[in-house]
Amino acid sequence: MIEPEQNKLVEFRNVTYSVNGGAPIIDGLSLTVKEGETLVLLGESGCGKTTTLRLVNRLLIPTSGNVLVEGKSTNDWDVISLRRRTGYVIQDAGLFPHFTIAQNVGLVPSLEKWDEGRIAGRVEELLSLVGLEPGRFADRYPRELSGGQRQRVGVARALAADPPLLLMDEPFGALDPLTRASLQKEFAELKTSLGKTVIFVTHDVREALLLGSRIALMSTGKIIVLETPAGFRKSTNEHARAYLETVETD
Amino acid sequence: MEFLRSNWSDILSHIAQHLWLVFLSIAIAIVIALPLGILITRQKKLRSPVLGIANVMQTIPSLALFGFLIPLPFIGGIGPRTAIVALVFYALLPIIRNTVTGILGVDPSVREAAAAMGMTDRQVLFKVELPLAMSVILTGVRVAVVITIGVAIIAAEVGAGGLGEYIFRGLRLNDNRLLLAGAVPSAIMALIADFGFGLIEKRFDTSVPRSRSRSRRILVWGTTALAILLLGFFSLRGVGSRSSGSDGHGHVTVGSKDFTESILLAEIVAQMLEAQHINVDRRFDLGGNLAHTALVGGQIDLYPEYTGTAYTAILHHQPISDPKAVYDQVQREYSSQLNLWLSNPLGFDNTFAILIRGEDARKLNLKTVSETAKYASEWHAGFGHDFMVRPDGYEGFSRAYGLRFAGVSDMALDLTYTALASHKVDMIAGNSTDGRIAALDLIQLQDDRHYFPPYEAVFVIRREVKDLAGSAGDSDRPISPLVTVMNKLAGAISTDEMRQMNYQVDGQRRDKTVVVHDWLAKKELVH
Question: Is the CB of residue B164 less than 8 Å from the CB of residue B156?
Answer without folding.
Answer: yes
